[in-house]
Target: SDR family oxidoreductase
Amino acid sequence: MDKIALIVGASGIVGSNLARELLGHDWTVYGLARRPQSDLAGLRPVAADLLDPAALATALADVAPTHVFLTSWMRQDTEAENIRVNGAMVRNLLAALGPKHSVQHVALVTGLKHYLGPFDSYARAGALPPTPVREEMPRLEAPNFYYAQEDEVFAAAERDGFSWSIHRPHTIIGQAVGNLMNMGTTLAVYASLCKALGRPFRWPGSQAQWQGLSDVTDAQVLAKQLEWAATTEAAKNQAFNITNGDYFRWSWLWPRLAEWFGVEAVGFEGTVQPLEEQMAGDADAWRQLAAQHHLAEPDLSRLASPWHTDLDLGRPIEVMTDMSRSRELGFNVYQRSDQSFFDLFAKLRAEQLIP
Model:
C-alpha cells in the first residue's frame, strides 16, 4: 500500500529530518510550510498558511495523504494566544483533509512542556513533577497549547476515524535554520563567538541543571520514532516520550563541547548567567564573523535561540525522561547524546553555518 506523508513544518528541525527519513524508505512526501524548502530531492513542497482555511483547502486540493505529521507551531505573546493560534492550525488542517477520507494516522510532536508547564509558568518550583517523567502522568492544571493541539487531534480522529500518536521529545538536537527552539545550533554559534572574541564558554544555567541528570533528543531519533509509530499497529492511539536513551550531566558534557571548539569552559559559578544576556550585543560580531569566513547565514537570530536554551538550562530541577512505553513495544533506537552534538557541529561547519 502506498504511504503518502504530509509533513507540516517540513523546513523545521523536526520536519526536515523526518522528510529525509521517510524519503529514504520510499514514502511519497509532501512538505507544507508558509515558505517550503525546495532543496531536498524528492520532497514535494506545499505553500500554505494554516490560519487561512480557504487558502489551505486550495493548496491541498490535489494532496491526499495517508499519514499526517504535525511538527510546526507558532509562538505568541501569551499562552492564551498560543492556545488559540496553535489549536486553530491543527483544527484547520484536519478539517481541510477530512472530506478526502484518505488519512489513516496523524502524529503530533509536542514536548516536555506537557509535564513542566507552558512558557509563562515553565518549571516553576511547587508544581514540578517527579522525574523521570512518564507518559501516564496527568496533565497539569495550567493552560497549555500542547493540550489544545492534542484535543484537536483527538476530536478529528473521533470524527474521521484515523489513529493518532503523540510524541514528546526533550531538547531536540539537529540542523535547521530559522528554528525557534534550537539548543544545539545556539551553543555552536555561542562557542564560535567565544572563540572569535576571546571569551570563555561560560555555563549560562542553573546549579540544578549543571549537577543533575538530563537527556536530549536527536532529531534523527525522533524521525525514526515517528515513522515507527505511524506504521506499527501496537503504537496506535498512544503518547510516547522520546529521547536518545542515555543520561548525562552538563558538568560532564560542557567541557567536551568546549574542547570541540577549542575554547575555555567555565562551569556554574554561583548564579545563572543567561545566554540571552551574554549574546545580547553579538549580532554585529556574528555578521562580521560570517563575512570573514563566508558563512551562509549572517543573521544571528536565524541561527541562535538563546531565550529557549535559557529555559532549558535554567530549570530548577534535573530532567529525565522515561522511555519504557515505546521500548516495550519494540522501538529500540539509541544515540549517544555527546555524539549528537558533535555530529551536528560537524554538519554546521560542513554547510558553512559556523566557522
